[in-house]
Amino acid sequence: MTERIVIVGGGTGGTVLTNRLTDELAHEIDAGDVEVTLVNDTPEQTYKPAFLYVAFGKKTMHEARRPLSDLVDLRHANLLVDRVTGIDTESKHLTLAKDDGGLDYDHLVLAMGANLDPDEVPGLKEGGHHFYGPNGAEKLRDALAGFTEGHVVLSVIGVPHMCPAAPVEFVLMADAWFRERGIRDQVEITYTYPIMRAHGIQSIADWATELFDERDINLETFFNAEEIDPEANVVKTMEGTELDYDLLVAIPPHTGSELVSDAGLGDDGWVEVDKNTLEAKNADDVYAIGDVADLPTSKAGSVAHYAAGTVAARLASRVRGLVPTETYDGKTICFIESGMDEATFVEFGYGDEPVVREPSQLLHWSKLAYNESYWLTARGLI
Amino acid sequence: MSESIQPDVTVDSRGATCPGPLMDLIGKVKKLEPGTVVELLTTDSSSSHDVPEWVDKAGHETLDVVEHEDEGYWSVFIETTK
Ligand SMILES: Cc1cc2nc3c(=O)[nH]c(=O)nc-3n(C[C@H](O)[C@H](O)[C@H](O)COP(=O)(O)OP(=O)(O)OC[C@H]3O[C@@H](n4cnc5c(N)ncnc54)[C@H](O)[C@@H]3O)c2cc1C
Predict the structure, then answer these.
(1) What is the pLDDT of residues A17-37, one digit of tens each?
(2) Is the same domain home to A326 and A307?
(3) How many Å lie between the alpha carbon of B19 and the closest alpha carbon of chain A?
(4) What 3-state DSSP class applies to A14?
(5) Is B18 a catalytic residue?
(6) To probe the interface with B, which of A159, A207, A227 has the most B CB atoms within 10 Å?
(7) Residues A122 and A248 both lie in one domain
(8) pLDDT at A292 over 90
(9) Do A196 and A123 belong to one domain?
């Protein structure tokens, strides 16, 4: 009997996993004992970290996309371009948007990422920009290019949100970018964050607060935007404060996938998983990796990548009839831009307090080099 | 007293590093109806005072903070008011 492994979502987690599996199980796949299918709703993958650079005109959306057929080994994996519209974990069946027959699985891995939900905050769509999606990043690039004076407000609204470092990076890059353009003295920059400090992690918060001070970036804490008045250009918060802006850049509210809540796999669309084995708590033979998993760490590409490695090893053991022993310890790595030509780097696991290294030009080039070589990572080569 | 508090929703942030237990709680609270009792489980000792501080600012109510000393975590019970 063939063991059918189905992976939903061909982003960072889904492609790394597909490639790890086809590498590890090539022999079993050739013998017809295992079948690996990757389902994605578009024929190409979009590399989201590029959006930050698109906003400053340093990258184009064209550079951020690659056909999935170039990223996975089509001799050993099936690539299905279709949208999964339903998950039945009892009968182990997926319904699809295009293919009426759907898809059966023996082992299912969910890697659908996170979605943006700007409608959650009234006025946000009309009054705010963002760099968390391809269209948003391109529109923000145009708005920034034409912005010569006034108040730029970066407000972290979405909790949780992808890449907890990106909002800090955005204001530090904006500061350097306006300086380069010789108009920094005409631009006020404010960064707002939901809790009592500049970042969820104390050491990053301390580091960012010092830099904000040095670079004349205002910091507003305990700031949870509840409503935007796009006519008056005002942000109103849950805490009862108001802030005027000329250009609002929001980290929009995020949601998981409706498929997840409909299938009873987790509230708010995030799959409830065991944080070490990545197995779904509410169904058998279902795993979740990357942003769609309700893990107590960042929604970051590095998390999707390392979790994919763990699930690949566990699945390989399962199909070989062995007891899976590989676990994920929460390893997360983030490069953080601290301007236009320097960056820092943090690494941590579950429960660790990371140390922020001294920013350097070398780390900035490392982040850019990683962005360039990302496609090799997705292909499972590095 | 806390033995008698029955949470409607539990947010398990034990072991959470980034972006942390309070952020997990805020994300949840934003989606809840008024009058919902939430239990936040956290291994981060600073949450036991950080969380009540935010809850107060945002106009919700902290019901109790209980330390589970042997297991090394805290339960913070709050009730949403809006
Ligand atoms: C601006 C920005 C900057 C970032 N910077 C960094 C960074 O510097 N470092 C870092 O580590 N991370 C960064 N991230 C986060 C990183 O991009 C994500 O954490 C990562 O992409 C998550 O991978 P994933 O596989 O879980 O999901 P994704 O890469 O989002 O992929 C999900 C895939 O699933 C598909 N899909 C969804 N639903 C369905 C369905 N029903 N049927 C079929 N297919 C479906 C989608 O089309 C998509 O291809 C950044 C994110 C943003 C937005």
Answers:
(1) 999 999 999 999 999 999 999
(2) yes
(3) 4
(4) helix
(5) yes
(6) A159
(7) yes
(8) yes
(9) yes
* ipTM for the predicted complex: 0.86
In the block, which residue shows the tokens 């983030």? Answer: A334
Point out the residue among B14, B17, B46 whose CB comes nearest to the CB of A297. Answer: B17
Q: How far apart are CA A367 and CA A350, in angstroms?
A: 23
Q: State residue A103's pLDDT score.
A: 98
Average pLDDT for chain A: 96
More confident residue, A94 or A201: A94
- The CATH code for residues B2-79 is 3.30.110.40
- Domain boundaries, position A287: 3-114+256-331
DSSP state of A357: P
| A323, pLDDT greater than 80 | yes
Question: Among partner residues A160, A202, A240, which is closest to B27 by beta-carbon distance?
Answer: A160
How far apart, in whole angstroms, are the C-alpha atoms of residue B43 and residue A107?
33
Q: Which of A238, A273, A303 to mutate to test the interface with B (most CBs of B within 10 A)?
A: A238
A53 DSSP β-pair partners: none
Contact call for A330 and B20, based on CB within 8 A: no
Q: Counting atoms of ligand 1 from 1, which one is nearest the CA of A332?
A: 11
Catalytic residue among B3, B4, B6, B18: B18
Boundaries of every domain in chain B: 2-79
> In CATH, what number is assigned to the domain containing residue A69?
3.50.50.60
- Partnered with residue B75 across adjacent β-strands are B41, B66
Nearest partner of A76 among A13, A115, A30, A145, judged by Cα: A30
